[in-house]
Amino acid sequence: MSCLALGGIRLAAQSPVTAGVTVGTVKLSDARSEQALTGVLRYQPTPWLGLSAMPGTVHVTDVINGRSVSSSGFGDLPLSADAFHAFATPGSPVVAAALTVVLPAGNAACGLGSGETSLGLDVGAGVSPSRRLRVSADASRSVSGLSSQSALAAPHATSLRAEAGYDISPRWTADVSLGADVGRSDSTQALSRVLGAGASHVLAGSVALALDGSVGLSAASPKWTLAVGVGTAFTGISPVSPSSSLQRLKSAFGGGVSRGSGAGKVGCR
């Protein structure tokens, strides 16, 4: 038997294989919005190593020259391997890293995906000042290509996140997250700053429900985001901070659709 960490809750799993689904919507700009249905299939062969696949479908709408156009279909396919190490010292500090390969499964000609294979890296650390409270920080960026970030992050920037999660009860966990892009942006997607919050609730056994949302803190940020997930695993599982709302949102919209103008690309059905 293995255990799945959801926030500070340890959920007993009958199998090293877990799964879940997330549905969400995001207002990327005044003219551009996206809805996504993303699944996650996770295999944890050892307590410190996890492997995940996150296929998804997306529907993106844009206003081009005063006319509303849209595209629907499969997004790009993220495949991730994550590992962590916990230290047996006061505060239970944890360090972790994740490597993600994004395969170009989406139709880039219709604005669904980047059209190229990309590679991303995520590193982080966390600590528990008390039995119920956890704080963590992590950084992620694309090592090569564009889409290993997310629709919520600038392609060439480094995304920084800081989170605090609290176990309200044995079944309820809440968190607040602050995220910011730093470094270089490109001409289609500027640097972003967002504030996120989320809550998760164990429904029965190893099945839990998660609700996450975010608001933009700058003009270049996504205006707002909302997502609901259910299952024994969630998109964006982080070995450092599984309760991170921004991490779950980032992967829920990881199909490679950008915040930039879709002129000449959106409009396929």
Query: What is the CA-based Rg, rounded?
Result: 18 Å
What's the level 1 CATH class?
Mainly Beta
Helix content: under 10%
Mean pLDDT across the residues is: 83
Q: What is the percentage of strand-forming residues?
A: over 45%
| Main β-sheet description | 12 strands, antiparallel, barrel
Distance between the termini: 44 Å
Count of individual beta strands = 16
How would you characterize the overall build of this protein?
- With 269 residues, the chain is mostly beta strands.
- The protein has one domain (2-252): Porin (Beta Barrel), CATH 2.40.160.40.
- It contains one helix and 16 strands.
- The chain has a twelve-stranded antiparallel β-barrel with strand order 3-4-5-8-9-10-11-12-13-14-15-16. A two-stranded antiparallel sheet has the order 1-2.
- The longest helix has 8 residues, at 245-252.
- The protein is globular.
- The protein starts with a strand and ends in a 17-residue tail after the last helix.
In short:
With 269 residues, the protein is mainly beta.
Summarize the topology.
Blueprint: E1 2-6, E2 9-13, E3 17-27, E4 33-46, E5 49-53, E6 56-64, E7 67-74, E8 77-86, E9 94-103, E10 118-127, E11 133-144, E12 157-167, E13 172-183, E14 193-204, E15 207-216, E16 224-231, H1 245-252
Antiparallel strand pairs: 1-2, 3-4, 3-16, 4-5, 4-6, 5-8, 6-7, 8-9, 9-10, 10-11, 11-12, 12-13, 13-14, 14-15, 15-16
Write out key terms for the chains shown.
disordered N terminus; mainly beta; twelve-stranded antiparallel beta barrel; 269 residues; Porin
